[in-house]
Design goal:
With 227 residues, the chain is α+β, with helices and mostly antiparallel strands. The chain has 2 domains: 109 residues, Glutaredoxin (3-Layer(aba) Sandwich); 117 residues, Glutathione S-transferase Yfyf (Class Pi), Chain A, domain 2, CATH 1.20.1050. Helix content is 48%, strand content 13%. The protein is built from 11 helices and 6 strands. The strands form 2 sheets. The protein has a 4-stranded mixed β-sheet with strand order 4-3-5-6, sandwiched between helices. β5 and β6 form a beta hairpin. α6 packs parallel to α8, α7 crosses α9 and α9 crosses α10. The structure holds glutathione. The site of glutathione has 10 residues, from α2. This is Glutathione S-transferase theta-1.
């Protein structure tokens, strides 16, 4: 693990607290986020961390340079050596959908992200289950877009209803992957086109752009072709 990350984790584990009239140094749990923002599931987790303002230490791993394979300790964090993964203190977790659910519950995030109501939650799990079994690039193929437009969104603003949920984060990052190639995949899909705007507004443009800096950079350098 990088010295920089270890140092950041050390400082995050200490904070000052008032206790019986005195200022004392107390330990608190640190959350480390292992990611590469060129990865769709890593961006989905990054969007939740940013939108929900969850304090964390970022540990970037450049997948294109094989850093996720070379980093000695990363094998202990994530057995598959994929991104994203998190460590909350000594508790480590991989698989983006599991991470998103964990963050909502652990950090007591507002209900809309992943509601406790059994049926509303099941509808979000329905999307996530479907999403997780899509193979790479399938998220933007006609069948998937038809499903999103006519079934998962249908007459709702977001996948879970009136407010944004973790399923929206997973779904939108499939689309933003193609922004690198100047493709928005929205032609003929008016609900998806509107939903993309609504998701950005719900997250906040600043956070959304922060997580997409690497995508914008690839796009602007025309790494995968021009408009
Ligand atoms: N199902 C996993 C997928 C993770 C995944 O496939 N990550 C890719 C980047 S999008 C990765 O780390 N690839 C590197 C590799 O396989 O060597 C999740 O949702 O977290």
């Amino acid at each position: 693990m990088r010295a920089q990350t270890l140092l950041a984790r050390f400082f995050y584990t200490l904070h000052f607290q008032f206790w019986r009239g005195r200022v004392v140094l107390r330990a608190m749990t640190s959350l480390t986020f292992f990611h590469d923002f060129l990865s769709q599931p890593a961006r989905a987790v990054g969007l939740l961390l940013g939108a929900a303002k969850i304090e964390h230490v970022k540990h970037p791993l450049k997948v294109t340079e094989g850093e996720h394979k070379k980093d000695e300790e990363y094998g202990n964090v994530c057995p598959t050596r994929e991104v994203p993964a998190i460590c909350d203190g000594d508790f480590c977790l991989f698989e983006s959908s599991s991470i998103l659910k964990y963050l909502v519950r652990k950090y007591n995030l507002p209900e809309h992200w992943y509601p406790s109501d059994v049926q509303r939650q099941a509808k979000i799990d329905e999307y996530l289950g479907w999403h997780d079994k899509l193979k790479e690039l399938e998220g933007v193929q006609k069948r998937s877009k038809d499903m999103l437009e006519n079934y998962f969104l249908k007459d709702k603003k977001f996948i879970g209803g009136d407010e944004i949920c973790i399923a929206d984060l997973q779904a939108i990052c499939e689309f933003t992957q193609f922004w690198m190639m100047h493709i928005d995949h929205c032609e003929g899909y008016p609900r998806i086109a509107q939903w993309i705007k609504d998701v950005q507004a719900a997250i906040g443009q600043e956070i959304f752009d922060e997580v997409h800096v690497a995508v914008y950079s690839m796009r602007d350098q025309n790494m995968f072709g021009t408009k």
